[in-house]
């Protein structure tokens, strides 16, 4: 007990207020009329909500294309991360030593450690040779590559919790490795797969630097659209807040669902060998 | 024994991962090193030629390299001094397990999940000189308007505030995990001996969470080197280059000034800067758990 109970609660309430206020402010700005947005003192609750900003956002020529790009790229890269990541995570969780383990982990950590721009410069050049610049497939592959380490770290912690004895008895009953993995291991790790999937899709959904470099008009994602509002000379905060809200709401909803596993995901890779 | 050995999944399962990591890390990295010895300019149609260490010489002689490195270090230093103490404090309070702790924890980690670009946009609105809610709040307690993003010092503060808002939860979570790992019997013994709360913190808690704090410090240093999204939205490195970090400078060199090979050389330099931090991190993380 460092602080008195009252002081602890005041601190928690203050910190909660500071954590949530920007979120509240974005959402409330997104449903305000221009006049209310620019009024001083700021209007916190006493305004008539309007959907104007959303209507002007949704009527942007490319909005729905960009929105579906974001969803396709997020789902595609998450799927790859889960399939490929679960294979590797299973090997890493069950087999402590094999040739190539150390360099593999080295590469995984390099992604966590290096600023992405260092790798994205050459990737940009390489993908224009391969015709993968401004393509959804290219973005899916690159997103997957950058997120696989996080998927592996998280999945490993779930595979490690499955007792080896279960596998042994299945093996005695004559199950092949493939059957063992698909029929026994994966179902047992299902909550882990869901949690990892949601966590990895969050990373993809939020990603900005990769698409800002790799996406042109065809494969632009939501964060790039949100960012593009800022380069307009006339800053129109209403539609901007609507765009930010459209990006933020799925996250808030998802994180309520995976609250339980979130903590493991958020610190993954930080303290594991 | 034999059966047990057969049971172990094979290392071949990691091959697909190897392929992906080769495509996004290994090959790009070596290709980047190769590019840094050429003279590629994205605006030029001349075939690139080999120029040896020219790019490194140019880059190391440029004042921007050093001024952006200095800005990166300033942000890192003040950022660490802000985020680690607040993170520890919040973790300690959560660790008291008061009623409602779970809900508070969920609320407090929300900022780190949100799209950085959208967060940057929100803060840019909140930092607005005339219409921003921050200046309004300061004004109501008698503080004059600050042109937050207009001058170097205040813009750096704004950037650190936004990064702290998103990063303190990470510090808090790792410290909380370390606190949970401390055996309660240690505290009981200390209390029986009549130790005060601050003594317990300094003599028991702090030494036991130090390995975790080192890990956090190393990770945060790497993250400050990576800082991009919120910075890009808030100031785009401006006014001028006053808030441009080394990472953002690399981006500008490559994609704004189109000096691609010079940017690649900067990338190699950033990698070299990252290396010692990386090794310290791996060492420190062995002390955790």
From TrEMBL, chain A:
<feature type="transmembrane region" description="Helical">
    <location>
        <begin position="136"/>
        <end position="159"/>
    </location>
</feature>
<keyword id="KW-0472">Membrane</keyword>
<feature type="domain" description="ABC transmembrane type-1">
    <location>
        <begin position="67"/>
        <end position="258"/>
    </location>
</feature>
<dbReference type="InterPro" id="IPR035906">
    <property type="entry name" value="MetI-like_sf"/>
</dbReference>
<dbReference type="GO" id="GO:0055085">
    <property type="term" value="P:transmembrane transport"/>
</dbReference>
<feature type="transmembrane region" description="Helical">
    <location>
        <begin position="180"/>
        <end position="205"/>
    </location>
</feature>
<dbReference type="InterPro" id="IPR050901">
    <property type="entry name" value="BP-dep_ABC_trans_perm"/>
</dbReference>
<comment type="similarity">
    <text>Belongs to the binding-protein-dependent transport system permease family.</text>
</comment>
<dbReference type="InterPro" id="IPR000515">
    <property type="entry name" value="MetI-like"/>
</dbReference>
<feature type="transmembrane region" description="Helical">
    <location>
        <begin position="104"/>
        <end position="124"/>
    </location>
</feature>
<feature type="transmembrane region" description="Helical">
    <location>
        <begin position="237"/>
        <end position="258"/>
    </location>
</feature>
<keyword id="KW-0812">Transmembrane</keyword>
<keyword id="KW-1003">Cell membrane</keyword>
<protein>
    <recommendedName>
        <fullName>ABC transmembrane type-1 domain-containing protein</fullName>
    </recommendedName>
</protein>
<dbReference type="Pfam" id="PF00528">
    <property type="entry name" value="BPD_transp_1"/>
</dbReference>
<dbReference type="GO" id="GO:0005886">
    <property type="term" value="C:plasma membrane"/>
</dbReference>
<keyword id="KW-0813">Transport</keyword>
<feature type="transmembrane region" description="Helical">
    <location>
        <begin position="66"/>
        <end position="92"/>
    </location>
</feature>
<keyword id="KW-1133">Transmembrane helix</keyword>
């Amino acid at each position: 007990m460092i602080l008195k109970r009252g002081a602890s609660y005041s601190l928690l309430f203050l910190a909660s207020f500071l954590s949530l206020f920007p979120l509240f402010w974005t959402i409330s700005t997104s449903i305000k009329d221009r006049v209310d947005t620019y009024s001083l003192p700021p209007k916190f609750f006493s305004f008539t909500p309007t959907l104007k900003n959303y209507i002007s956002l949704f009527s942007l020529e490319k909005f729905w294309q960009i929105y579906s790009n974001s969803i396709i790229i997020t789902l595609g890269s998450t799927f790859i991360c889960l399939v490929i990541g679960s294979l590797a995570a299973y090997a890493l969780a069950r087999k402590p030593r094999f040739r190539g383990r150390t360099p593999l982990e080295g590469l995984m950590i390099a992604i966590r450690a290096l600023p992405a721009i260092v790798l994205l410069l050459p990737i940009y050049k390489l993908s224009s040779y391969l015709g993968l610049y401004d393509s959804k497939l290219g973005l899916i592959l690159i997103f997957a590559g950058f997120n696989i380490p996080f998927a592996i770290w998280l999945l490993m912690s779930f595979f490690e919790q499955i007792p080896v004895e279960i596998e042994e008895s299945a093996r005695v009953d004559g199950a092949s490795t493939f059957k063992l993995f698909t029929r026994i291991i994966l179902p047992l790790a299902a909550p882990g797969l869901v949690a990892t999937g949601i966590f990895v899709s969050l990373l993809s959904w939020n990603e900005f630097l990769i698409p800002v470099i790799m996406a042109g008009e065809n494969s632009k994602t939501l964060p790039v659209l949100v960012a593009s509002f800022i380069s307009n000379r006339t800053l129109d905060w209403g539609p901007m807040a609507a765009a930010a809200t459209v990006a933020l709401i799925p996250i808030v909803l998802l994180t309520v669902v995976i609250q339980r596993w979130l903590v493991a995901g958020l610190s993954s890779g930080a303290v594991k060998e | 024994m034999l059966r047990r050995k057969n049971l172990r999944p094979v290392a071949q399962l990691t091959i697909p991962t190897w392929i992906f990591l080769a495509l996004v890390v290994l090959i790009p990295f070596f290709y980047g090193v190769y590019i840094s010895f050429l003279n590629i300019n994205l605006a030029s149609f001349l075939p690139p030629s080999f120029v040896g260490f020219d790019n490194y010489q140019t880059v190391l002689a440029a004042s921007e390299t050093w001024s952006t490195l200095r800005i990166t270090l300033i942000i890192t230093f003040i950022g660490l001094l802000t985020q680690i103490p607040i993170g520890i404090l919040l973790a300690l309070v959560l660790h008291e397990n008061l009623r409602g702790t779970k809900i508070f924890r969920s609320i407090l980690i929300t900022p780190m999940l949100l799209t950085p670009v959208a967060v940057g946009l929100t803060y840019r609105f909140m930092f607005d000189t005339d219409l921003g809610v921050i200046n309004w709040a300061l004004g109501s307690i008698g503080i004059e308007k600050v042109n937050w993003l207009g001058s170097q010092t205040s813009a750096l503060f704004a950037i650190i505030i936004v990064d702290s808002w998103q990063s303190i939860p990470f510090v808090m979570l790792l410290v909380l995990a370390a606190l949970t790992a401390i055996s309660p019997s240690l505290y009981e013994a200390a209390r029986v001996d009549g130790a005060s709360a601050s003594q317990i913190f300094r003599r028991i808690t702090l030494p036991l969470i130090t390995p975790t704090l080192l890990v956090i410090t190393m990770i945060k240093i790497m993250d400050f080197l990576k800082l991009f999204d919120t910075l890009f939205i808030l100031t785009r490195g401006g006014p001028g280059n006053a808030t441009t970090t080394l990472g953002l400078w690399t981006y500008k060199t490559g994609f704004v000034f189109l000096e691609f090979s010079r940017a690649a050389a900067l990338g190699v330099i950033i990698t070299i800067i990252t290396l010692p931090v990386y090794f310290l991190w791996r060492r420190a993380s062995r002390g955790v758990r």
